[in-house]
């Protein structure tokens, strides 16, 4: 079995790099018999089918239960290796969230609903958290007043950690006296933040090379509208 290391970039970049690595391995290392793909994206169905049928290799899909496409698992002949994580207490998760958002605010010009939720899914502080769960968690933090949604002068909505809350202040004081947790891939990758608001970045991987938004402003507006439609507050 061969382990393929994929660079941490935006989803479209890492997906493309994974596909290139797979092709190179198939052509240059024919002795490799098993491919373990750590993805739940159904867009890899065609790739999995090709690996198995054209090259006669075994494929196993690795990922978190509930976030992996059933069709993708079926394409891999049912070979699925689920990632298992120990459950984290709700209070501990909430404290981690406050510290997490604090670091995001300090490392980025501003943060949005979608950005925070996406960053949570790659952070070691929230192991196994799916995208939908992360969105619900951020929405709950807004409802409880831990986060505030503010509209900037240019019309865009951003998230602000409510540092006026006593519990938030207490948690950040504890954090300042200790050692910060490890950074997530999104926190530690300035390229992702640039890609997130880059007019040339594509929101998703598509064979037809589906174009991205016309401008960074349009991209942020699209995110803002999506958040209002899903979480209207």
The main sheet orders its strands as: 1-2-3
Order of helices and strands: HEHEHEHHHEEHHH
Helix content, binned percent: 40-55%
What class, by secondary structure content?
mainly alpha
Low-confidence segments, given as residue ranges, are 4-10, 179-185, 187-220
Number of strands: 5
How many domains, in number, for the residues?
A: 2
Into which percentage range does the β-strand content fall?
5-15%
Number of helices: 9
What kind of oligomer do you see?
Answer: single chain
What summary fits the major beta sheet?
3 strands, parallel
Query: Roughly how many Å apart are the termini?
Result: 48 Å
If you average the pLDDT, what whole number results?
75
**Mind telling me the C-alpha Rg?**
20 Å
The general outline is: elongated
Region (Disordered): 175-233
Biased composition (Basic and acidic residues): 216-233
Protein name: NYN domain-containing protein
GO molecular function: RNA nuclease activity
What does this entry show, briefly?
The protein is mainly α. The protein is 45% helix and 10% strand.
Write the layout of secondary structure elements.
Layout: H1 11-28, E1 34-38, H2 45-53, E2 58-63, H3 70-75, E3 80-82, H4 90-107, H5 113-120, H6 131-143, E4 147-151, E5 157-161, H7 166-177, H8 190-196, H9 216-230
Parallel strand pairs: 1-2, 2-3
Antiparallel strand pairs: 4-5
Region (Disordered): 175-233
Organism: Eiseniibacteriota bacterium
Pfam families: NYN
């Amino acid at each position: 079995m061969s382990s393929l290391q994929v660079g941490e970039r935006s989803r479209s970049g890492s997906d493309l790099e994974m596909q290139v690595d797979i092709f190179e391995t198939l052509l240059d290392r024919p002795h490799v018999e098993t491919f373990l793909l750590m993805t739940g994206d159904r867009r890899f169905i065609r790739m999995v089918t090709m690996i198995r049928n054209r090259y006669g290799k075994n494929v196993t899909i690795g990922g978190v239960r509930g976030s992996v496409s059933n069709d993708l698992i079926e394409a891999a002949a049912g070979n699925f290796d689920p990632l298992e994580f120990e459950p984290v207490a709700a209070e501990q998760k909430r404290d981690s969230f406050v510290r997490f958002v604090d670091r995001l605010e300090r490392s980025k010009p501003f943060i949005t609903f979608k950005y925070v939720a996406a960053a949570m899914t790659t952070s070691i502080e929230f192991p196994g958290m799916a995208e939908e769960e992360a969105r619900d968690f951020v929405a709950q933090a807004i409802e409880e007043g831990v986060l505030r949604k503010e509209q900037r002068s240019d019309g865009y909505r951003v998230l602000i950690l409510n540092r006026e809350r006593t519990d938030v202040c207490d948690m950040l004081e504890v954090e300042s006296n200790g050692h910060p947790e490890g950074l997530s891939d999104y926190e530690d990758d300035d390229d992702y933040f640039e890609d997130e608001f880059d007019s040339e970045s594509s929101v998703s991987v598509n064979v037809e090379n589906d174009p991205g938004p016309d401008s960074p402003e349009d991209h942020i507006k699209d995110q803002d509208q999506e958040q209002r439609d899903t979480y209207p507050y």
